[in-house]
Amino acid sequence: MSRNEQTTKLAELLQGASIAMLTTVSPEHKLISRPMAVQEAEFDGDLWFIFSEDSPKAQQIKDEAEVNVSFESKHTFVSLAGRGTVVHDRKKLEEHWSASVDAWFPDGIDTPGVALLKVEAESAQYWEAKGGPVKMAFEILKARASNEQPDLGSSEKVEL
Fold first, then answer.
1. Helix, strand or coil, per DSSP, at residue 100
2. Could you tell me the CA-to-CA distances from 88 to 16, 50, 105, 128 in Å, in that order?
3. Global pTM?
4. Residue 131 pLDDT > 80, yes or no?
5. How far is CA 52 from CA 28, 56, 73, 84, in A?
6. What angle do CA 46, 52, 57 make, to 5 degrees?
7. How far is CA 49 from CA 1, 40, 114, in A?
8. Dist. CA 68–CA 33, nearest whole Å
9. Is the CB of residue 68 less than 8 Å from the CB of residue 23?
10. pLDDT at residue number 154
11. Whole-number Cα distances in Å, 155 to 104, 118, 128
12. What is the reported pLDDT for 70?
């Protein structure tokens, strides 16, 4: 698969995801994960999040740019590894701003410290489940009866 095809596949898998788990590295070299609202944007290899530059996660990203972002949507799981950067770009911020973000920033887009987190994806791993919950339950029961691994779907690693 070409890089463009891989990016398109990941974009399809990420559709419908509303929450992501962002993992950063603390000053003590511990992994810290927290939920982040997914911004409505076409995935082109970069992810965008709106956050406060005054937050611990912003400092962690400035100190150690390696991050991981994981998603779950419709029985599909995606884990993206890449580099995070704090970005100050008013036009880009306006492009990604939504009413739901207002709840986190009392002065809206003009809240002091509001910034963008850009994650440039370097690699991804995804798992696509076959069918819905009923199909998954059937595969698990079938596997238990046959003493074999359940066929729950496919997994692929992608270098971007």
1. helix
2. 27, 10, 16, 35
3. 0.85
4. no
5. 21, 9, 26, 14
6. 70
7. 28, 10, 11
8. 9
9. yes
10. 76
11. 35, 26, 6
12. 97
pLDDT attached to residue 42: 79
Write the single-letter amino acid at 115: A
Task: Give Cα separations from 144 to 3, 134, 135, 149 (angstroms).
Answer: 38, 15, 14, 8
Q: What is the DSSP letter of 106?
A: T
Average pLDDT over the chain, rounded to whole? 89
130 in Cβ contact with 76 (< 8 Å) = no
Q: How far apart are CA 146 and CA 22, in angstroms?
A: 38
151 compared with 37, residue with greater pLDDT: 37
Beta-bridge partner residues of 56: none
CB 81 within 8 A of CB 124: yes
- Helix extents (H) in the chain: 3-14, 56-63, 90-96, 99-102, 133-146
54, 86 Cβ separation under 8 angstroms: no
